[in-house]
Amino acid sequence: MNKFLRIAETHPLTWRLRDDEQTIWIKEYCNKDGYKALKKALKEMLPEDIINTIKESGLKGRGGAGFPTGLKWSLMSQNKLSINRRYLVCNADEMEPGTYKDRLLIEKIPHQLIEGMVLAAYALNVSRGYIFLRGEYIQAENILKKSIQEAINFGYVGSNILGSNFNFTIILHTGAGRYICGEETALINSLEGRRPNPRSKPPFPAVFGLWGKPTCVNNVETLSNIPYILLHGINWYKNLSKSVDAGTKLMGFSGKVKNPGVWELPFGTTAREILEDYACGMKSGFFLKAWQPGGAGTDFLTPADLDIPMDFNNISKAGSRLGTALAMAVDNKTNIVSLVHNIEKFFARESCGLCTPCRDGLPWIVKILKSLEKRQGHKDDVYTLERLCIHLSPGKTFCAHAPGAIEPLQSAIKYFRSEFEAGISKKNIDINKKIIGIQSN
Amino acid sequence: MSIKFQLTNEEINEIEKHKKDYENFRAISIEALKIVQKKRGWISDQAIYAIAEILKINPSEVEGVATFYSQIFRQPVGRNIIRYCDSVVCFLTGYKAIKIALEDFLKIKIGETTQDNRFTLLPVCCLGNCDKAPTIMINEDTYSFLTPESIPCLLESYK
C-alpha cells in the first residue's frame, strides 16, 4: 500500500494501515474505531435492521461476481422457520492469477474481517463461521489464528458476546491448493471434506449449503466493508463512490508498470488514473498494449478503454468484467499468444474435471495455443479456438470456470487476431494446398 | 516383510482435536492428510487407510481428496519444496528465467526431486504477490522480486 493520504472518511478499508506495513493487532485496531460498529449493532440494531442497511447501502460482493450482498443476506433470513443451524463462510481462497487484495486485508488488518464476520453472523443468526483460507497463505494463517484468539480474549468472539446473549465461533479452515475451491459451492464441498466439484444450483447455499444447512458465503473484502457501513450509515457509504456502485474498492495495477500495487479507491476511478497517478505509468521502454481489468478470467481491454470508469456496469459495457478490479498491464514486448497460452494453461490445470467441455476443451485450447506459439499451427486453428470459445461459453458448462477461462482468449483473438494467425505454419498451409488443392485464405 | 503403518499418538491427538469443529469426521480429511504429511513428507497408501480408519470413512474417499489437491503428495518428495509461481503476472515479469535458473541449479525438471532428496520443484498458482513479482515459495516462506542470479544463493540456505 503506497503512502497516499488515507483518512477514515474516505478510505474505510485501509486508513488504519501502518506505514511500516506491520499487522494491526487488536489494541491498535480498537484504538482506531475497531469493534465500535459491533458494540453499536449489538446494542441498538436488530438483525433485520442490519440486513436492510446492507441492502440499501448497495454493497456488492467483492469476490468478482458483484452479487448484491444485502440480497444474498435476505435470502438467508427468508428461511426464518428453519430450526437448522446456519453457517457463515468467509471465502479467503484467493487464487485468481493477478489478484492480491484479500492477502493485504487478512495480513495487515485481520480484525476488520473478524468484526465484519461477527456482524454478518449476528444479522444472519449464525452461531458458527468458517474462514476458508487457501493453503499457500501460511503467513495469513498464522496472523488469523492469533487474531481470532485475541478477539476471543477480548470477548468479541465466543459466547455471550458483549453481554448480548449472542454466540459466535470462528473456525479457521485451510485448503490444500485448488483454484476451484474459490467457487461458492465447490468451497462448500471442500469444507465438507468431499472432492470440491461445484454443485448444481438451485438449491442455492442460502437454502441448502454446508451440510445441507442455510449457508452464506462472502468474500474477505465484502465482509471487511460491513463494520464501517454500520457505523457511518448508508448515505456516507454511497457518497464515497464516483459511480452508481456504492463505496470504495481495492484496485491496482501489476505487470510492467513503475509502481505496481493496490490502493483503495472510489468506484468510478478510471483505469488511466490508477495506471498513471498510482502505478506511475509503464516502465521506461514499454508501452501499454492491452490490460485485464480484474484477474486472469476477465476479457482484455485496449489502451483506448483506459478512460472507462472502473465499476461493474461500465467495464461490462466495454466488453469485460470488473472482476476483482486488480488490473494487469500487458506491455508491447509481450506476445499475446504466449500470454494467453500461460493463462489457459492455468485454467486447464485447475479444471476440476467434472464436466466434459471444461475438462477436455481447455487442454485442447492449450494444445492449439502451444503450437501457435511455436509457429507450428494449422490453418484452421484460429477458427477452432473461436468454436471452442462458443462451446465453453456461459451455460454450456457446470460452473463459471470455463466461461471465465475463455474470456481472455476470445478478447485476445478479437483485438490481436493477426498475432494468432502469425502462428500458423506456412508449411502446413502448403501441405494443404498440395494435398487437396485448396488455397489458403 | 513390510512394517505395519501406524499413526503416532501425536498425530491421532492432533486429528481428534479438529473433530469438534465440524459436523462430521469427513470434513477433517484435508487437515488429517496435512497433519500426517507434515512429519512424514508424503501420503503413502497405508497412510490413506490409517486416516480412513480414524475418520470412519471409506479409504477411496480419502484417496479422492488426497489426489485432488496440489499440496498433498502421494509420492515421496524432497526435504524442501520449491514452488515457483507461473501465473500471468509472474509470466510478464519473467518467471521463465527463474524456472530455468532453478532447473539449472538443481539439475532436475519440474515435478522431480534432486538425487540427494534435498529439493522438489513444483509450479504453483498465483501466490497473491503480483505487485512483487516474480515470486517463489520455499516450504513456508515466500520470496519476492526474484532474479535468476539470486537463486543459487537463496537455495544454498536450505539444507
From TrEMBL, chain A:
Residue ranges of domain NADH-ubiquinone oxidoreductase 51kDa subunit iron-sulphur binding in the record: 337-382
InterPro entries for this protein: NADH-UbQ_OxRdtase_51kDa_CS, NADH-UbQ_OxRdtase_suF, Nuo51_FMN-bd, Nuo51_FMN-bd_sf, Nuop51_4Fe4S-bd, Nuop51_4Fe4S-bd_sf
Reactions listed under catalytic activity: a quinone + NADH + 5 H(+)(in) = a quinol + NAD(+) + 4 H(+)(out)
Protein name, entry field: NADH-quinone oxidoreductase subunit F
Single annotated GO MF: quinone binding
Task of the protein: NDH-1 shuttles electrons from NADH, via FMN and iron-sulfur (Fe-S) centers, to quinones in the respiratory chain. Couples the redox reaction to proton translocation (for every two electrons transferred, four hydrogen ions are translocated across the cytoplasmic membrane), and thus conserves the redox energy in a proton gradient.
First-tier enzyme category under EC: translocase
Subunit architecture: Composed of 13 different subunits. Subunits NuoCD, E, F, and G constitute the peripheral sector of the complex.
NCBIfam families in the record: nuoF_fam, PRK11278.1, PRK13596.1
TrEMBL record, chain B:
Recorded catalytic activity of this chain's protein: a quinone + NADH + 5 H(+)(in) = a quinol + NAD(+) + 4 H(+)(out)
Protein name: NADH-quinone oxidoreductase subunit E
Family statement drawn from the similarity comment of this UniProt entry: Belongs to the complex I 24 kDa subunit family.
The entry's keywords: 2Fe-2S, Iron, Iron-sulfur, Metal-binding, NAD, Oxidoreductase, Quinone
Cofactor note: Binds 1 [2Fe-2S] cluster.
Gene: nuoE
Names of required cofactors: [2Fe-2S] cluster
Record note on quaternary structure: Composed of 13 different subunits. Subunits NuoCD, E, F, and G constitute the peripheral sector of the complex.
Annotated binding of [2Fe-2S] cluster, by residue: C85, C90, C126, C130
Origin: domain of life: Bacteria
Key word Phosphoprotein present: no
GO molecular function per UniProt: 2 iron, 2 sulfur cluster binding; metal ion binding; NADH dehydrogenase activity; quinone binding
